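Q: I'm writing a short explainer about MOB kinase activator-like 2 for a general audience and would like to include a description of its predicted shape. Could you first generate the structure from this sequence?
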Amino acid sequence: MPNGIDFNEWLASHTISIFDNTNLIYGTVSEFCTISGCPDMVGPSYRTYLWFDEKGKKSRVAAPLYIDYVMTFVQKTINDETIFPTKYANEFPVGLEIVVKKILRLLFHVIAHLYHSHFRELVLLNLHTHLNCVFAHLSVFNHRYQLIEQRETEILQDLVVALKILGDDEETATEVNESIDEYKDVINKEPTMSFADQPINMFPNPSPINTQTLATQIDNF
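A: Of course. Here's the predicted structure. Afterward I'll give you a sentence or two in plain language.
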């Protein structure tokens, strides 16, 4: 983080950026994320995400409904002047980091669902690299400030290694090779739209993301 920058301002700016880009990418495939096609909000390893309402009641909802709840909640939160102030002299609340942690956790769920259920569509639309960049941004930012619990992020750890987001790790790389088979059934399933029929590789010769450059950009954003 650059000298002289308020930590809360730093958290807020990156959180809003990650939200905007995640929302934009989901919007490109939202018409294929339907109640019938995605009856549950799931991520890799078929992890199911339950929605908790304002009263703490959890419910199992279809992916498009869950994501709509997420985007509505985040948009409403970042538009709240008492939480994400934009006017001069207004200060961030003491509990901003708690709010940011919740937002990033929910956005991670959306990204996990995109990889699990809609990566094929994103590849066919040539938008998968954009998703990878947003995921890299979230991963490096989280790695730097530990904002999402490891039990949440572990389901995409193999992708972190495959894209070389946080550097090389031979032991973890071995785990990636063993877990890629899990994605084959997802990627090779019949698409939900009339694109040309072609096999899709979850990791199509991924080019390493320059971790040092990305970290520098986050530090000097």
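A: For your explainer, you could say: The chain is about 55% helix and 5% strand.
Q: Perfect, that's easy to follow.
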